[in-house]
Design a protein that fits this description.
Layout: H1 2-34, E1 36-37, E2 40-41, H2 44-50, H3 53-86, H4 92-99, H5 101-104, H6 107-118, H7 124-132, H8 146-171, H9 175-182, H10 187-198, H11 200-215, H12 219-225, H13 233-243, H14 246-281, H15 298-324, H16 341-347, H17 350-383, H18 391-401, H19 404-414, H20 427-450, H21 455-463, H22 468-479, H23 481-496, H24 500-505, H25 513-524, H26 526-550
Antiparallel strand pairs: 1-2
Length: 557
């Protein structure tokens, strides 16, 4: 029995040690570096950074973009979630699937697509508008503005809010709504006085998640805002790191700490508000909510939802496919302008397959490490009574909440040789970054599955003389296998097309496909980027279908 306890403790201790070394240690060093000047504690780095008007403008642009995206996304999400969750809207399942398609599309791929659609000179939407209204010489749409950047941010980050509100509506006890209707309240008054107040915690939590995601974003601000010379905190951090001097690195860490604090405080507020108010929204038993009849508004609602889904989900994908099949964008989709030359060029390019292999191998390793470490952390939380058993789970969540740009900068500081290990510029720093960033997905999946395993099954095996490791391997893991497979894919998919950390951590010997696509779109060949974007979308779709199948429908993106 003592051997069982020791083997379990050693395995869990190793998992926690890996998290501390590769996750918490780099973030801690980054914070220390931000407050260090000439060998001692100082606020000089912060004074230097925020004395620069360009940095102050970047902070303001970040807050403005994140705040407006949060407000617009939340205002948009609630009526859509209510229509699919509480009304007799036809084709609800189809609409529910289509409306979260932007959640499956890498945001920087979405930025590329909208660049094709609303480029003021050759964008498809502008070509179509000018064909209908010849008075326009250029435009009238211009995606390369603050408004254009916020538009794209809303499209690809509002699903965070939509999913949060949808889940709250599904879990909410409908008895209060039914009581209000019986007492004669109109559907609009029930919505205003009952539904919205009860779902307020989820609305607030979803809004804060949108704010954090947008504040941490790099792809859309760089590809859309960069054309308009709109700088945000993430793009300023990268510009400092690219300078490469010690002074620039100090200033990058000072900016990163502000972004870290902003993100952590917002997520803490979201969790605190949900924990404080959740009992108002949940009923004691699961009951089917009363469906609100839309009456004469049913088909106008269908038309509205169809338009929203077309603009949000179908139009960007159309733009990518069209651009990948034309010789020049300015001539549109005419038959004599169609070609497969771009596809041949991209598919025959060694860089395509080299970067694909880098992303594939690094994502496989990161996902596998996440499942091993995440399972042990989840086991510690769910199946033991050790003191502080929830702390590793909290630390994994903290690493996930840390903006990717901040985590990447911390890894550069920690593993550039100063502390005895040099991973910077190698393939392995990509693996570490993806592992740390997405570990909490594996922990959550494993913890949810372990909670469904009755202790008597493991106790029976232990009482028969089997060791802990054998019980863990032969009993526990097979029982939760589908959920672990789903967790593996939840780490693999975002790691495969990751951009924000890759921009700082790539090297000529280890370039992931996300950075290769960013380079094509920004510098080398914008139209070739369409082909690679379509390939990535196909791989994302295949990955999601595989995840559903292998996890027996328990997990999907």
């Amino acid at each position: 029995m003592r051997l069982n306890l020791e083997s379990k403790s050693v395995a869990i201790a190793l998992a926690v040690a890996v998290l501390l070394i590769f996750g918490i240690f780099p973030i801690t060093l980054l914070v220390i570096d931000a407050f260090t000047f000439e060998g001692g504690f100082s606020l000089a780095n912060f004074r230097e950074v925020y004395a620069n008007p360009a940095n102050l403008a970047a902070v303001w642009n970040t807050i403005k973009a994140a705040g407006l995206t949060m407000v617009i996304g939340t205002v948009l999400s609630f009526p859509l979630a209510w229509l699919v969750g509480r009304t007799d809207l036809p084709f609800k399942n189809v609409f529910r699937t289509l409306i979260i398609v932007p959640y499956l599309v890498p945001p920087f791929v979405g930025a590329i697509a909208w660049g094709y659609l609303a480029n003021p000179r050759i964008g498809y939407l502008n070509q179509w508008i000018r064909a209908l209204f010849p008075g326009f010489q250029q435009g009238p749409l211009n995606i390369y503005t603050m408004a254009g950047m916020i538009w794209v941010l809303v499209l690809f980050y509002f699903p965070f809010s939509f999913l949060s509100i949808s889940r709250a509506l599904e879990k909410m006890d409908p008895s209060l709504e039914e009581a209000a209707r019986i007492s004669g309240a109109s559907p609009l008054r029930v919505l205003r006085d009952i539904t919205i107040p009860l779902t307020a915690p989820a609305i607030a939590a979803g809004a804060l998640l949108v704010f954090v995601a947008v504040a941490s974003a790099f792809g859309i601000p760089s590809l859309i805002g960069g054309q308009a010379r709109i700088q945000v905190v993430t793009t300023r951090i990268i510009s400092y790191v690219y300078v490469g001097t010690p002074e620039a690195m100090h200033e990058a860490t000072a900016l990163a700490v502000v972004l870290l604090v902003l993100s952590v405080v917002a997520l803490w507020l979201a969790n605190w508000y949900l924990a404080k108010r959740e009992y108002f929204t949940l009923g004691g038993k699961s009951t089917r909510p009363t469906v609100v009849e839309l009456g004469r508004w049913k088909w106008p609602a269908v038309a509205l939802f169809t338009l929203v889904c077309f603009v949000f989900a179908v139009l960007p994908v159309m733009a990518l496919v069209m651009t990948s099949l034309v010789k020049t964008m300015g001539r549109g989709f005419a038959l004599d302008n169609l070609t497969l030359d771009l596809w041949k060029s991209v598919l025959q390019d060694d860089d395509t397959w080299r970067t694909m292999r880098t992303s594939l191998y690094s994502s496989i390793l990161a996902a596998t490490a996440s499942i091993v470490v995440g399972l042990l952390i989840a086991y510690l939380k769910v199946k033991t009574r050790m003191r502080f058993r929830t702390i590793p789970d909290f630390l994994a969540t903290f690493c996930n909440a840390t903006p990717g740009i901040v985590l990447a900068l911390g890894l550069i500081i920690a593993f550039s040789g100063k502390y005895g290990v040099n991973l910077y510029g190698t393939f392995w720093i990509l693996v570490v970054a993806y592992f740390v960033r997405h570990l909490s997905y594996a922990v959550r999946q494993a913890a949810a599955a372990l909670e469904q395993v009755h202790p008597s099954l493991e106790e029976a095996a232990l009482s028969s003389g089997a060791g802990w490791f054998r019980v863990f391997k032969d009993v526990t893991i097979p029982l939760i296998g589908p959920s672990l497979i789903g967790g593996w894919f939840l780490v693999f998919m975002p790691s495969f097309y990751e951009l924000t950390m890759s921009v700082l951590l790539y090297s000529s010997k280890a370039t992931p496909v996300g950075y290769h696509l960013f380079h094509l779109s920004s510098y080398a060949s914008p139209q070739s980027a369409a082909v690679l974007s379509v390939l990535i979308l196909i791989l994302v779709l295949i990955g999601n279908l595989l995840m559903r199948w292998l996890s027996r429908g328990k997990v999907s993106l």
